[in-house]
User: What shape does this take?
Amino acid sequence: MPITFTKPRGLTDAPTHYCPGCTHGIVHRLVAEVLEELGVLDKAIGVAPVGCSVLAFEYFACDVFEAAHGRAPAVATGVKRAKPDSVVFTYQGDGDLAAIGTAEIVHAATRGEKITTVFVNNAIYGMTGGQMAPTTLPGQVTETSPYGRDTNIAGFPIRVSEMISTLDGAAYVERVSVDSVKNVLKAKMAIKRAFECQIEGIGFSLVEVLSICPTNWGLSPQESMDWLRDHMLPYYPLGVKKDKTKESE
Amino acid sequence: MGEKVLMKGTEAIGEAAIRANCQCFFGYPITPQTELAAYLAKQMPKLNRVFVQAESEVAAINMIYGAAGTGARVMTSSSSPGISLMSEGISYIAGAELPCLIINIVRGGPGLGSIQPAQSDYFQATKGGGHGDYNMPVYAPSSIQEMVDLIQDAFDVADLYRTPCMMMGDGMLGQMMEPVEFVLRTPRAVPEKDWAATGLHGRAKHNVINSLYLDPQDMENHNIHLQEKFRRIRENEARYELFECDRDNDLMIVAYGTTARICKNVIRDAERDGIRLGLVRPITLWPFPTEAFEQTIDRTHFGYLTVEMSAGQMVEDVRLAVNGRQPVAFYGRMGGMVPHPKDILERVKQMIYQGVK
Amino acid sequence: MTGQEIVFAGFGGQGILSMGKFLAFAGMEAGLNVSWLPSYGPEMRGGTANCSVILTENTIGSPVVTTPTTLVVMNRPSLDKFEPALVENGLLILDSDLVNRSPVRQDIEPVGIPAQSIAERLGNKKVANMVLLGALIKMTQVVPVETLLHAIQRHGKQQFYELNESAIVHGCDFSF
Assistant: This one.
């Protein structure tokens, strides 16, 4: 019988620790598939964050760094500058990238580092057990916003893609979602485009992936997908926010 | 032999790093070491090497983590408040066993402190600074020539043991100019960096640069491995200078860096008053050169006087080395004040004539 | 000669740091041990500037000069600040065009030189510092004038060499 579906070469055989229904597995797979399809797995170097995907260094089959919380873009900068021929990516969650690591992501982007950031936004801190994230929606209940995020007290969510897209060093920025098969395929195309942008040396690229966290949202995976569509999509509109690849064609 | 050139300490460090084949520099401006970054910003691009001004010391040390992890020879530089910011990253670098060189041109503290010379980061440098059980070799040159000579050695030790190394100077060594000669040194044999994350390039197993071990037994095993490495460094890499110690002295002074060179003047001045002093000068602060005390313990009448530009942070290490066999006293200035030879000699006389401990 | 521990002091922009540097270069060429230490930090942003220079046959301990053997001052605040520190019988060289008071101490050797006027006659007030430096080496004999000129030729900007040279020579020739 012919084999029609395999694990991509970009992933190791290690079983992941992610919760049932978590979308990290999908996003990991998309990154691995893209690296393989672009033929750059051999020169890819990943940088894992602190957060739920802290163990990503065990799952990606390329060389990987485990960075301190929020510092992945700085680590990736060091890697890329020292090894300019490599294909470097950071894989970060919303707490890592949009709270403690805001300075690093903004400056890596504005320097136009030839790296790619895969930014997983599930509007909550996952690993520490469901606290309010910089991306938590107004009114959303979390461990540390038990009465719902009050914007008078806790301020407003950050729209990372829109913010990064204002920087001249950012070459490709897109927000995607993995809530449906169609959107998963679109997400893959965006990630591929982002890596191509790096490989062609155009500049910094970021793909924000709207994701779910059934465990900490307290919903089933199916309900979580509905919640993402009903609540996250209106606040975080999908689409390409910046595309310098077209300008350079 | 090369030609002697007159150079500022900070710039001499930059030139020495270039000659030691440093490939990448990441840093953030802070007085009194910014001229080092400026020097490398000018020179590194000409050599097709990397200079990046980071957005913060926090980012700079993490860029070091990234570049060192690829196997490149890398350096950063800062001054006290900046080193505090880098301390988290240094802990990660020690944990992940990455070689790099960190320059600390120490200024007065605590807090924003002053920008004048100080030695008040001794504890931070030698006892950790960041979290976890780690140490790193700390070099404390007392002249610009020695700074230059130690740069190559520090890079080699970093590679040899897979460890961050720190070079501690102070605002005076950084800002002053004195003649220096760049002698071509024979590098030590360092192992190949087969652990580096360079991209697979056909390698079967992926390399991971990491300091996370969720299983406590794994974490302890890693710590046992690190401690074994620190033991080897303690055994092999301690350095010191003994000055006027091959005679019976009234008193031994213990001082490092800028303070040590001031104390050499004190020793000269004391001779005129008929007082014989020796100097134990640690060149590495970690590992602390306890051997230097074994060699001098029987040749001092009144014990040891530690002289520092701090509240006496090195005194603990001196006492541990002396281990109760001789009295250990202290004289120091703080906050960016530099001890005056006259005042040091006054303290020496107190000890000798009045028995003040 | 015996060693010299010199403090140069004045306003930022008067060439205080560079006169010290040229002397240090010359001292090195003359085979002496030398050190040069500037004041740094906010002090160097427009306000006062000073530097310590040591030339000696001995090894140099502290590069900080606390009791100068020679003091060169190019403004009043510097005279106020450093006059008390000068050693007994120490040499005080001051720009008499800029310092509007006489030294208080009787146990020192003061020399006033109208360096601004001399420099202006030479075509550029900016070389007043070199006039004073010329006077300094003439009076202290710390290095030969040829060595100083050679150091300036090697380490100074080429387009200013002739002007600098003439300022040094005028400083040397100034009759006290």
User: Anything to note?
Assistant: Chain B has a mean pLDDT of 96. Chain B has two domains: 4-236, 241-353. The longest strand of chain B covers residues 100-106. Chain B touches chain C at residues 4, 6, 31-32, 115-116, 171-172, 175-179, 258, 261-266, 268, 338, 340-341 (CB under 8 Å).
